[in-house]
Amino acid sequence: MERRDLVRIDLTGKTALVTGSTQGIGAAIATGLGRAGARVAVNGRSRESVDAALERLRGEVADAEFVAAPGDIATDAGTRQVLDAVPDVDVLVNNLGIFGARPALEIDDDEWRRYFEVNVLTAVRMTRGYLPRMREGGWGRVLNIASDSAFVVPAEMIHYGMSKTALLAVSRGFAKEAAGSGVTVNSVIAGPTHTGGVEDFVYELVDRDLSWERAQREFMRLHRPQSLIQRLIEPEEIANMVVYLASPLASATTGGAIRVDGGYVDSIVP
Question: Among this protein's residues, is 160 annotated catalytic?
Answer without folding.
Answer: yes
